[in-house]
Amino acid sequence: MQIAFIGLGNMGGPMAANLVKAGFNVHVFDLVEDSVKALAGLGATAASSAIDAAKGADVLVSMLPAGKHVRSLYLGDDGLVAHLKFGALVIDSSTIDAESARIVAKGLADKGIDFVDAPVSGGVAGAAAGTLTFIVGGSDEQFNKAKPVLQAMGQNIFHAGGHGAGQVAKICNNMLLSVLMVGTSEALKLGLDNGLDANVLSDIMLQSSGCNWTLQKYNPCPGVMENVPSSHSYQGGFMVDLMRKDLGLAMDTAKQSHSSTPLGALAQSLYAMHSLHGNGNKDFSSIFTLFGQADSNK
Ligand code: NAD
User: Fold this and answer.
1) What domains can you pick out in the chain, each with its CATH number?
2) CB-CB contact of 135 with 158 (8 Å)
3) 256 burial class (0-12, 13-18, 19+ CB within 10 angstroms)?
4) Are 28 and 45 in contact, with CB atoms under 8 Å apart?
5) Which residues catalyse the reaction (predicted)?
6) Backbone Cα Rg of the chain
7) Which residues contact 121 (CB under 8 A, 6 or more apart)?
8) What is the best residue among 18, 31, 244 to mutate for testing ligand 1's pocket, by most ligand atoms within 8 Å of CB?
9) Which of 14, 148, 272, 291 is deepest in the core (most CB within 10 A)?
10) Exposed, middle or buried by CB within 10 Å (0-12, 13-18, 19+), for 151?
11) Cβ(8) to ligand 1 under 6 A?
């Protein structure tokens, strides 16, 4: 099977490397030449353009920054829709708005090309280890067609529903994660400000009704857990600005469906404020540093 991979950034690079490792014939392209060279060094075939990579491909995977890049790659001037073969499958794993995913799916379907949106959860570490979670939108047939390729890059493959459903499920999850991270940070800081030990308070909440994923796997207070970004100056992990992007997509989706998401909106404002203070490149658990005791003498 010939696979084209477009977008070899922080996520796409290691994902494409895992496809090579799994024995697929992978043709790669990125606007950054060095990224293409790095993959060629691992056994992929370097393509000179996206069109060159797409020629003859049975499956094309894209991992691009945002919806406008994905729409333009497939449906823009001289887009890939005119160069992919009839019956090919496109897997777009970028995190984009559901509407863009549906527009691209429709544009490709008109030419007999299958499409699934398959955004991921698991971050750069999951991409490197091949343990990503894929959340797929598309028909049953398209889901089954994509599965063997996705299994070479991830561990959990979910079928969320029709086109766009993968993107909607992904941003619902990340909106909830942001709210949990803000709430957990606030609670831990309140305890600290009142003389509690963060380890003791975390242990208590882990066994109580406040228990949640951020306490179990990603404690935001430095020193409570060893191998998490909070204990490494909030470096690595999932960047504040990427969480802001996902919250922006969640708010756009809520507006379109007339849904009320007050806590998501508040989390979006808090993360925007946090980014403004120079924290955009830090891990999203650094929101912990936004909270604290006011100076009572002022
Ligand atoms: P990135 O900026 O590191 O990589 C994007 C790559 O796409 C870049 O190398 C860029 O040169 C390339 N590119 C852009 N337009 C192109 C075009 N027309 N043709 C070829 N290449 C093109 O971003 P990333 O961190 O790899 O994220 C990619 C996607 O995955 C985003 O949608 C992001 O929201 C999502 N995501 C990221 C993470 C994470 O932790 N980094 C986690 C989950 C999901």
Assistant:
1) 2-161 (3.40.50.720), 168-297 (1.10.1040.10)
2) yes
3) exposed
4) yes
5) 170
6) 21
7) 132, 133, 135, 170, 173, 174
8) 31
9) 14
10) middle
11) yes
Look at residue 196 in the predicted model and tell me its pLDDT.
98
Compute the distance between CA of residue 215 and CA of residue 181 in angstroms, rounded to an integer.
Answer: 9
Give the model's pLDDT for residue 298.
55
pLDDT at 297: 59
Helix, strand, coil content of the chain in percent (nearest 5): 50, 15, 35
Mean pLDDT in order along the chain per 10 residues (298 residues)? 96 98 98 98 98 98 96 97 98 97 98 98 92 98 98 98 98 97 98 97 98 97 96 94 97 96 98 98 97 72
Compute the distance from residue 200 Cα to the ligand 1 centre, in Å. 39
Looking at residue 148, the DSSP 8-state letter turns out to be: H
What does 182-221 look like in DSSP terms, one character per residue?
Answer: HHHHHHHHHHHHTT--HHHHHHHHHTSTT--HHHHH---S
Residue 123 CA to ligand 1 centre (angstroms): 12
pLDDT at 294: 75
- Indicate which atom in ligand 1 lies nearest the CA of residue 64: 7
